[in-house]
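BUG-174 | component: ligand-complex export | severity: low

The export step for zinc ion jobs runs without errors, but we want the raw record kept on the ticket for reference. Input record follows.
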Amino acid sequence: MKPLSTLFPLLACLLLGALPVTAADPNENPALAGRLPDDALPKSDEEYKKRLTPEQFEVARKKGTERAFSGKYWNTKTPGTYRCICCGEPLFASGEKFDSGCGWPSFYAPIDAAKDNVKGKVVAEHADRSHFMIRTEVTCRRCGAHLGHVFDDGPPPTGLRYCINSASITLDPK
Ligand SMILES: [Zn+2]
């Protein structure tokens, strides 16, 4: 039996050494600070994995879905700009956020949509036939991050509901 005084430093070393392996440090994600320059965009899943939390990686890079009412922003009313968690691109603004009651942050338009219902360029749409449904997936056009889906049951003026995972976005308060 070793004396405790030698075991404790050993234990501390093991714990500290294990931390970077088990969870990405969100503070190491430069997209939290602002829009990444083109040459700073990750090029592989491995690079994204190092920057994102496990949930962010699963949702944004692997097309996962966070549980309803579990995400950071479903009920947020703070004014500001929502940017892509992967590349920092501004995607949605608080002014177009509305209370959909569905448990995910919902917007009636992307940040660069025009009033005449042109959907803008920052968000791309793709047909999604997974889970026995026909839905329209929306991604960050710049880096391909999965954001969520868009439905046509939203409020005026667009009638659209962009149902977005909190894990795919980060809010810059105004
Ligand atoms: Zn992006």
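Assignee comment: Attached the raw record above. Residues 6-23 have pLDDT under 50 and may be disordered.
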